Amino acid sequence: GEEHYNCISALHKSMRGSDENASLYWLARMLEGGEDPLYVARRLVRFASEDIGLADPLALTQAVAAYQGCHFIGMPECEVILAQCVVYFARAPKSIEVYKAYSNVKECLRMHTGPLPPVPLHLRNAPTRLMKNLGYGKGYKYNPIYKEPVEQDYLPQELKGTDFFKEQKT
Question: Where does the MgsA AAA+ ATPase C-terminal domain start and stop, copy by copy (predicted)?
Fold first, then answer.
């Protein structure tokens, strides 16, 4: 019932608050109460990107490995896998930079009126002669062949200069 959601919320907030003891307590309370370890593992995958993000990019690898470990061996053996992941997450630095930036992109899309801007011609795929003749892919600079990053626009003209990492949601 409701306690299922209360406990996962407490686990998330304890890890977010870097409290490894409380994190282990809420994990154990859930697992000892019969919670599906794969449910907890799925939530840890989300936490890795939502709350830790780029502050520790290996967190996502840890979470996916924990999910796979739980899937392979099940309870009760997988409890220590989840415990290791939960403590790792509680101790990890936190960053919501990507989470906020992606939310800003979604807000931009929702607030847009009229048709969405077209993909710039130089970014379009040109698998046919007709598409090439229409200018698809023309002027695209393939970054890996240059020694230095190249100047090139990747957003539609209407969004030129937009920085979703700095834009604040209204």
Answer: 17-169
What DSSP line would sit under 117-148, residue for residue? PPPPGGGS---SHHHHHTTTTTT---GGGSSS
Phi then psi for 87, rounded to 5 degrees?
A: -70, -40
- Residues contacting residue 44 through CB under 8 Å, at least 6 positions apart: 63, 66, 67, 82, 85, 86, 89
φ and ψ of 150, to 5 deg: -100, 150
Where exactly does CATH 1.20.272.10 map onto the chain? 2-91
Residue-wise pLDDT tens digits, 31-68 = 999 999 999 999 999 999 999 999 999 999 999 999 99
Residue partners of 71: CB distance under 8 A and separation at least 6: 38, 41
Nearest 5 degrees, angle CA 79-CA 83-CA 87? 175
How many C-beta atoms lie closer than 10 Å to residue 120's C-beta?
Answer: 16
What CATH architecture applies to the domain 2-91?
Up-down Bundle (1.20)
Cα-only R_g, the chain: 22
Q: Looking at the chain, how many residues does it have?
A: 170
Amino acid at 125: N
What lies within 8 Å, CB to CB, of 1 at 6+ separation is none
